[in-house]
Amino acid sequence: MKTRKRTTLQLYWTKKYVLTLISGLLILSVFSLWWMEKTALEYRLSLLKYLADETSDRAIKENGQIVVGPILSEIVEEREKILQLNKQPIIYIVDPDGSIIYTMPQLYIDEENSKLPGAIMNNEELIQKVKISENKVFVVKSPITFEGETKGWVVIAQEEGALKEVNQDHGLLAFLIGGLLLLGTGVIYFLSRKISRPIQDVANAAVQVREGNYEIHFKEEEEIREEEIYELVESFKEMTNRLKLMEKLRAELLAGVTHDLKTPVTSISGLIQAVRDDVVTGEQSKEFLDISLKETQRLQVMIEDLLDYNALSAGAFKIRLEKENLNTFIQEIAYRWHVTQEDQDFTLDVQVPDESIFGEIDSLRMQQIIINLLNNAKHSLDGNGTIVICLYEMEDSRIGIDVKDSGRGIPQHEQQYVFEPFYRGENKKLKVRGLGLGLPFSKMLAKAQKGDLLLKESDEKGTIFTITVEKSAQV
Questions:
Q1: Is residue 331 very low, low, confident or very high in pLDDT (cuts 50, 70, 90)?
Q2: What is the pLDDT of residues 270-323, one digit of tens each?
Q3: What is the pLDDT of residues 3-34, one digit of tens each?
Q4: Residue among 338, 343, 328 nearest 371 (CA)
Q5: Does domain 223-316 have CATH number 3.30.390.10?
Q6: Any idea where the domains of the chain sit in the sequence?
Q7: Paired sense of beta strands 322-325 and 135-146, if any
Q8: What is 322-471's CATH number, 3.40.50.10090, 3.30.450.30, 3.40.50.12780, 3.30.565.10?
């Protein structure tokens, strides 16, 4: 398949807009020429009518005789200058029957052409358009009258093309159209360059990202005022930062998973070796075996987390939604979790409405989400504190489950990353061992149940996570 040659965004749209501008200016020029010719024709015909009327008044003496002479010629020539015509019109002075008495300029008249056509003389219209020898000619008539009697006619003939000529205006129009074309091209080039530059920067940055370079720096020459372009640039910056974070997390994952998996294996190996070699005996050997069993269980939990996360990511995780009484469901989970906690210094408060709320959930997976949130809440307490589970109906006919704690909160700069796989905050890294899959996995489980898991708020007074699920009609 042949690949079409590509061009730059700036050049492409500059060509498009300039061609559009040229097309518009051509249409405007044609319309302007038509309008100028139409206006010039109407103006000159009115002047020819005035000239014909004035000539008819000058061509009659007091005794009623038609006369022509040098004075009349001078007057006509003076009036013709006003018309600004390149070609002089022909003025006929004829008798009532149309026989030519005099012409200006003087023409040789033979006997066959000594009389104007009846189509002109018999037409009642004083301004008419006729066709003579393939030429379109405008004819203007004015009667020569004396004491109410028509003694003759003044007939002025001029070709249509000469009346429409607007040579001086043509030059002005060409200058204006040319100026607009140059100005428009300059403005289009400037605007296309202004719009395409940040997009070109993003395209160049995308090439660098594709090659594995995430250290991208955009030129901050001036503030971007276009909302769409600003969103594009800022979104790309955010995407690049997230890719850098993911690269960092991937490196930390390899180191963290290796460490977290190696540590219990090393402990188990050392403890069992000590028992086998009789380094410890009796009750102490039993204690070593108990520790080995706990480390094995913790190792098993981490491996299961990885397997579950990968299975859900690959879509190989089955969710079975059923109608569930969430009031009873939450109270039972909270009770079972609370009684299994070795440290009971904190307070657990479960708040459910008096009227039962039913939701469409997978009870096993929802239990995983809530227990994970409760474990995180307890880790954030650092001893005494309060954990609250609150069930309520939301405005959009959905159900909300808030898990609140009065702990230290999540730092502001870490809040946007809490649902990123393998991400663990600095405080959590030092105190809680794990892979950083708890919250991402819980969010995926919530979405699989047509709901969501959100960080509602977090500050130095505590943190609130919200689970949303679909509401089900009561049985």
A1: very high
A2: 777 777 777 777 777 778 777 778 777 767 766 766 666 666 666 556 778 889
A3: 566 677 677 777 888 888 888 888 888 888 88
A4: 338
A5: no
A6: 9-169, 223-316, 322-471
A7: unpaired
A8: 3.30.565.10
pTM: 0.47
Q: Which CATH architecture has domain 9-169?
A: 2-Layer Sandwich (3.30)
Q: Using CA atoms, how far apart are residues 327 and 355, in angstroms rounded to an integer?
A: 8
d(CA 14, CA 190): 9
Contact yes or no for 390/327 (Cβ under 8 A): no
In CATH terms, are 9-169 and 322-471 the same topology?
A: no
Tokens of 440: 């991402």
Among residues 344, 423, 329, 330, the alpha carbon closest in space to that of 378 is found at 344
| Total residue count of the chain as it appears in this document | 475
